[in-house]
Amino acid sequence: MGMIQEFKEFAVKGNVVDLAVGVIIGGAFGTIVKSLVDDIIMPPIGWLTGGVDFSDLYVNLKPDSTFTSLDAAREAGEPVIAYGLFLNNLIAFLIVAWAVFIIVKAMNSLQRKAESEAPADAPVEPPKDILLLEEIRDAIRAKGV
C-alpha cells in the first residue's frame, strides 16, 4: 500500500476527525475563558484589592531601574518576573480544569445511567463452534453410541 493511500486512511478515520474538532472547539473555549478571566473575574478582584491590575504586576530583577509598567520594562529589555500574568493564567487554567471536570462528571453520569438502563440478563449467544459441537454431541447421543 502506498504512503499516500495509507495517509488518506489515517486522515479520514473518525478518531482523527474527532481530535481535529476537539482542538478547534478547545481553541474557541480558551478564547472564551481568557475573556472571562480578563474581562469579568479580574476587574472585581482588582477593585477589591484597591485597583491593582494583576496583569501589570511584576518584579524587576534590576532594582536600580524603575518602570511604570511591565510593558515599559520589557521594551527596555529589563529582566522581569511577570507574576501578575502568571496569576491570570493560573486562574484561567483553574477555570478550564473545573469546566472539563464538570463535563467529564456529566458524561460519566450519563454513561452510568445508560449502563444501568441496559438489560442485564440479555441472553448471550454461544460461539458457532460450540453450537456445532453441541449438535454433534446430540446426534451421537441420538444414535445411541
Automatic annotation (TrEMBL):
Keywords: Cell inner membrane, Cell membrane, Ion channel, Ion transport, Membrane, Transmembrane, Transmembrane helix, Transport
GO cellular component, one term: plasma membrane
Pfam family name, one: MscL
Gene3D superfamilies, per the entry: Large-conductance mechanosensitive channel, MscL, domain 1
SUPFAM superfamilies: Gated mechanosensitive channel (SSF81330)
Entry membrane topology: Multi-pass membrane protein
InterPro entries xref list: Mechanosensitive_channel_CS, MS_channel, MSC/AndL, MscL_channel
GO MF term list: mechanosensitive monoatomic ion channel activity
TM annotation in the entry: 12-33, 80-104
Cell location: Cell inner membrane; Cell membrane
PROSITE patterns noted in UniProt: MSCL (PS01327)
The organism's place on the tree of life at top rank: Bacteria
Subunit comment: Homopentamer.
Primary role: Channel that opens in response to stretch forces in the membrane lipid bilayer. May participate in the regulation of osmotic pressure changes within the cell.
Family as reported in the entry's similarity comment: Belongs to the MscL family.
Protein name (Swiss-Prot/TrEMBL): Large-conductance mechanosensitive channel
GN (gene name): mscL
